[in-house]
Amino acid sequence: MQETRTEASFHPLVEQQLQESFFHDQAWLTLVARRYGYHTEILTTTDREGRITGMLPVSLVSSPLTGRRLVSFPFSDYCPVIAADISAERELVCQALDLARRSRVRYLELRPGTSLQGHDELMESNLYVRWMLELDSDPGTLWNRLRKPVQRQIKKARNQGVQVRPARERDEMALYYRLHLLTRNKHGMPAQPRAFFFDLWDAFASRGHLHLLLAEYQGTVIAGMILLAYGSTVRYAYGASSERFLQLAPNNLLLWEALSWGGTHGYRRFDLGRTARDNEGLMEFKRRWGAAMEPLPYYYFPEVAGMVATSESSAKYRVLTACWRRLPPAVAGPLGGYLYRHLG
């Protein structure tokens, strides 16, 4: 059962934070809960006037494969503890801890994106960082912030005839998914079920929060990027490309078009997403675009646990990804769609 916040009265500071947080949007919470079958609750605090002063969505993930845990929030890089003040924040965390104990989960996982103070019960994990880039309404200003190798790759893609266009129709999400499945398989990772991406389109495209960019070469879609635009931030959510055409640098042109679009449409920041600290190659790629690294702590009770808390340099991670790479796409697609709910 999922609570709703459509008719609630909010403290102004809470309302302001909610306007910036995609991962608190009711449509996102509902999509994840329904698609993966999670029981989701929205923990809240209130003041004397009955206004909501804090909000934290949590999902109970119960899996025979990966265990029983409470997560805020599955398939979200970060889910801030929305609070008008520190006392509301602490009360929300206490509610989450109490719920974890009552639900008898193996662990509680919070992904607030910022530090949580005053909770000795929580164990902090710092496997990840996120990369944020300041946008500008002038594409020329953005261009000058790029390092020369990045600029050369963008020019190369254009000179080779790669073109980027926005998707207009729901069915075009299938073009993206084909590439997404191949890309995830190449990296040894299960892919989300195909229906998940159509759910995203249905929930957010008409509201202007989802934008799918497709890179084409000689009439063939060779790369794609899904952007989530919310509040003042554009977020790089998902990206995929055909390995056959990587020499044409379509991903560089896609990202440049995404940055230009965000800046000219009034967004102030571009979120390049979560990166494992031990993935130096990906971190250097993001540095070259002028992005700045920000901490991304996760918190656990009673101990750090789960797939998200597994280092990409660990033997366990390397074995799992190596095994998955050997699966043919015809097997990896359906199997990944089935397994994905167990990874939340």
Automatic annotation (TrEMBL):
Record's signal peptide: none
UniProt entry keywords in alphabetical sequence: Acyltransferase, Cell shape, Cell wall biogenesis/degradation, Peptidoglycan synthesis, Transferase
GO terms of molecular function: aminoacyltransferase activity
Record-linked InterPro entries: Acyl_CoA_acyltransferase, BioF2-like_GNAT_dom, FEMABX, PG_Glycine_Bridge_Synth
Family to which this protein belongs: Belongs to the FemABX family.
Key word Ribonucleoprotein present: no
Official protein name in the record: FemAB-related protein (PEP-CTERM system-associated)
Segments passing through the bilayer: none
Organism: Thermosporothrix hazakensis
Gene Ontology BP annotations: cell wall organization; peptidoglycan biosynthetic process; regulation of cell shape
Limits of the BioF2-like acetyltransferase domain: 145-287
